[in-house]
Structures are given as C-alpha cells and as structure tokens.
Structure prediction request, 279 residues.
Amino acid sequence: MINKVQIFYAGYCIHPECMVIKHGQFRKAKFPALFALLEHDKYGSILFDTGYTKRFFSETERFPFNIYSKLTPVVLEDGISAKEILESEGIHASSINYVIISHFHADHIGGLKDFKSAQFVFNSDSYDAVKDKRGISALRSGFLRGLLPENFEERAMPLTDTMKMDISEAAAPFETGYDLFGDKSIILVKLPGHAIGQIGALVTDRDHHEYFFVADAAWRSDAYRQFRPPNPIAYMIIDQRKEYIETLGKLNKLYLRRPELQIIPSHCMEAFGEKIWIT
Ligand SMILES: [Zn+2]
Prediction:
C-alpha cells in the first residue's frame, strides 16, 4: 500500500510557450523537471524519475552534447537536486529502494547516480533504443550516457509479462498495465511516442487518491485536457509522431471519462501552483 505521494521538481528548463503548445505564446515559460516520492508500507521509498542534477552541465560541456544544453536552457539552483530535496525532507538517498525511469532523457535520469541502493524499473524497449548510441545519435535521442551509474544493468528491473494486468476499468482506453509489486499500488503503463518505450505510473494511495504520472506523454495539462498537440517544431525531439498523437488522444479520453483522476505531466507547473512565466 502507498502511504504517501509527494511531488517535487529538480531544476527546470526555459522555452517559449509556443514550442510545446500549438498556438501558445512567444513568452518564455518554465518547464519543471518533476520527480515523485512514493512511500510504500512494504517496499519502502520509491521514486518516479529524478529530474536534473549538476551532472547535466558537466555532461554537456563538450561537442556534440553542448548543443543539448543550448537547445534546452536549464536552471538548477544550488541545493535543489532530488537527493538534496529528499534530504531536506528527512529522506536519505540510500533509503530509496527503487527508481521508476519513465524514459532515458537527461531530465528524467539526471539523478540516478545519487541513489546507490536503488533498483531501476523501466521498459526494456526504452533502454534498448538508446543503450548503444554514441555521439550525435545519442544526442538526437536526448541520451547522456554519463548519467547512468556504471552498474546500471546489474540493478535493472525491467517490466516483465508476469506483471501484466487488465487496467481498462481504471484507465480505459489504456488496456494493459504492469503491476509492479502485485498489489495494484503502482501500475506502470506504456505511453509510447515522445520516446520509444516510455512508461507512466498509475498510483493509488491508502486514501484511494489516484495519480497518473504520464512523464512527457503530454507536456502540459492543457495538452491532454483540450487535446492540443505540440508545435510541429517539437516533433524534432519526439521519437514517434503517430504514437505520440495516439497516446495524447487516449489521455484526453481518459481525462474526459474520469476527471477525478489526477493526470500529471512531468513538465507542467500546475502541480506546483507556481507561476510559469519568466518575466
Ligand atoms: Zn523526454
């Protein structure tokens, strides 16, 4: 059972709004790099993604990866990596037992090296799509190898068919989920498109509050509420355009069918109640 769900962000990047929402404004907006802490009574502390760390800057110093930090200008103030935020909440990094990796973009895996006792839960399609990439091809996939711990593969816990379950009641039009611990507290759902093999997490806490962390399947809440696909220019960094639109359409249908379910995109400020505009 999940006793507690907390949502934070570690760093943010700055883009004109119109980059991520069709017909958005030219004004510059903040896009936080979300991570969530899920506290399970039996399996302990679990993270969904990790946000940025300072390692993003060291990994993008040199060509071709310096293009990454130019395309997505990142702001990360001192003391706000996931590890530091958790410590300020009284949670030591070594007590994180699992990190769910939605996909392997740098703003989701930035903090993996800080959680030395954690096992890594992911869809093997997403790792297979990037693991052999180097140089420009890694850059095109938004993948910075140096962000992965050396022993990443030893600690890997990819989704398996034995975890499969029908989720149509809770999440139709999504039909299949992966029940991480066999108690339906965290069900992982494939959300392909933005990145090959991306997953989200459907989380139910002890008070029956339901959250659906959808990573980058939608960049903002208005995108799934109003079914607003991104600006065509954003498809440059989207792996599979057709699947992206399909997944966003399903999120829109799910929202209309079950508005009480909290659908949380990773880069939406709404969950934090902060202003998005850079003045
Ligand atoms: Zn991404």
About this structure: The pocket of zinc ion is lined by residues 103, 105, 194-195, 216 (CB under 6 Å). The first strand starts at residue 2 and ends at 16. The mean pLDDT is 93. The chain has one domain: 2-272.
